[in-house]
Amino acid sequence: ANNAVGNSIVPANHMVLNNQDSGVGSLRYFVDLAACNDTIRFDPILNNDTITLLSNLAVDNKNIFIIAQNDQNISVRINIDESIFDIEAQKVVLLDNLKLIASGTFDGYVINNKCNLTIKDLDVSTGNTQNPHAQILNTEGGTINFIGLNILRKN
Questions:
Q1: Minimal CA–CA distance to 33: which of 1, 63, 62?
Q2: Are 135 and 125 in contact (CB under 8 A)?
Q3: Which of 52, 67, 98, 154 is at a distance of 20 to 30 A from 18, taking alpha carbons?
Q4: DSSP character for 36?
Q5: Full-prediction pTM beyond 0.85?
Q6: Torsions phi, psi of 40, nearest 5?
Q7: How do the pLDDT tens digits run along the chain, 155 residues long?
Q8: CA 8 → CA 37, 45, 91, 153, distances in Å?
């Protein structure tokens, strides 16, 4: 949640502390808790770790920035027939320096985007080579800005 300073709202910085799907300190906890323009980062104890989700992360009604440091090698995986991120319309979202893996047997996408999405140094893959779709679905006026080295693959 944001902090009030005088008459202005200062965006908060949140730190993911574990690789659990939910609960205090998890990525889902902070995506749900975050207010508009908040930033979510990852504690160094998660370097080279994978966060496995049991359902997708819905980003609703807020601008949000999810950033891993260059050397952290953080993966976010979902093993069921859903996208990892479902991002609602008319928002700004940054996903920076993450590896996203959707390894269900589904016919879907890793990211379902309806907003102004910026991906920076992202490695996005479906774990199912039979999936006929791209890794990112961009609909309802969504835009995607690519910065840095982004890898989109099926493997």
A1: 1
A2: yes
A3: 154
A4: T
A5: yes
A6: -115, 125
A7: 555 555 556 889 999 999 999 999 999 999 999 999 999 999 999 999 999 999 999 998 889 999 999 999 999 998 877 888 988 887 899 999 999 988 775 556 788 899 999 999 999 887 666 665 667 888 888 999 999 999 887 76
A8: 13, 33, 20, 42
